[in-house]
Design goal:
Blueprint lengths: L12 E7 L6 H6 L6 E6 L6 H7 L3 E4 L5 H11 L4 E6 L2 E3 L1 H12 L7 E10 L2 E3 L9 E6 L3 E4 L6 E4 L3 E10 L5 H21 L6 H18 L6 H26 L34
Parallel strand pairs: 1-2, 1-4, 2-3, 6-11
Antiparallel strand pairs: 4-8, 5-11, 6-7, 6-8, 9-10
Helix pairs in contact: 5-7, 6-7
């Protein structure tokens, strides 16, 4: 529980964002972070106006070659001037209720918490989706970097905290997909990265992963978590989620048998967006969330 600290100064707060070719999103993202004391953008060699827009809005921009989502986000945290950090992806915004919750926690010097979780609400074709597999999708994004850091895999990375973690009211507003082509391309890329990571960990794919896991994913989101109440959007998201599970396990099944899953040779020993040193590379991806 948050407890006021007598005479404690208001903690200073750094916002951290990673980018690659996010000119369409970065301005709205950074404006939602204007209450922070500094904003750091770690950019993966964008060839659009991302860096110029970020600098025009007062962000400190650092150019860094993309080595993986986890590594890139931790680099942004390490570059911060303040110990309390708030991490967003370029296609995310801090909603008004969430900002009020952060201000309230900050006024109490964040109490004894090492970090704070917050729900993430994805906007899908003009409507926020608060059912199905994608909500509340709680993320630990506000934390004391002395007691927490980015961990897990390079894809599907997460913050690992050494101390109590509390929850805040309000949502991160997630504007995930520019269009359906962007959605399919990104999901396909993540499926490849996840398959490579699982293969490197020694995981195997079996027939039930290909047949049952996608079905269970669909039923979980569309039926058990009431995705059907979102109409065609709920149906579409449930189908995409199931297809993503199928693609991941299909690629893992192929890797188990030494077969290629993309244009890179299966034995390529280069670093793939930081998934691991002997996992083959794919084309650089937008440095945003998933």
């Amino acid at each position: 529980m948050l407890r006021p600290h007598a005479d404690a100064p208001l903690p200073r707060l750094s916002a951290c964002v990673i980018t690659r070719n996010e000119a369409a999103n970065i301005a709205d993202c950074l404006r939602s972070l204007s209450f922070c004391d500094e904003i750091i953008v770690v950019d993966s060699h964008s060839n659009d106006d991302t860096r110029a827009i970020a600098e025009s809005l007062g962000a400190r921009v650092i150019v860094r070659t993309f080595t993986g989502y986890r590594s890139q986000k931790q680099a942004a945290v390490d570059a911060a001037r303040h110990d309390w950090v708030l991490c967003l992806d370029a296609d995310e915004r801090i909603g008004e209720t969430l900002r009020a919750s952060i201000d309230e926690a900050r006024a109490k010097a964040f109490g004894d918490a090492a970090g704070f979780r917050m729900a993430r609400c994805t906007e899908y074709y003009g409507r926020p989706i608060r059912r199905g597999n994608g909500y509340p999708d709680r993320k630990l994004r506000l934390f004391d970097r002395r007691r927490a850091r980015w961990g897990g895999r390079e894809i599907h990375e997460k913050v690992v905290a050494d101390g109590p973690v509390e929850s805040l009211r309000g949502d991160i507003e997630h504007h995930a997909y520019r269009h359906v082509g962007d959605q399919w391309a990104r999901r396909d890329r993540y499926a490849t990265l996840m398959a490579r990571a699982l293969h490197h960990e020694g995981r195997r794919a079996y027939w039930w992963n290909l047949c049952l896991s996608p079905l269970l994913r669909f039923l979980r989101g569309y039926v058990l978590r009431f995705g059907f109440l979102d109409g065609w959007r709920g149906w579409a998201l449930a189908c995409v989620g199931a297809d993503n599970v199928y693609r991941k396990y299909m690629r893992l099944w192929l890797l188990d048998r030494g077969l290629p899953i993309d244009d890179e040779p299966a034995s390529a020993g280069v670093k793939a967006q930081g998934v691991d040193a002997d996992v083959p590379a794919v084309d650089p991806a937008p440095a945003r969330g998933h």
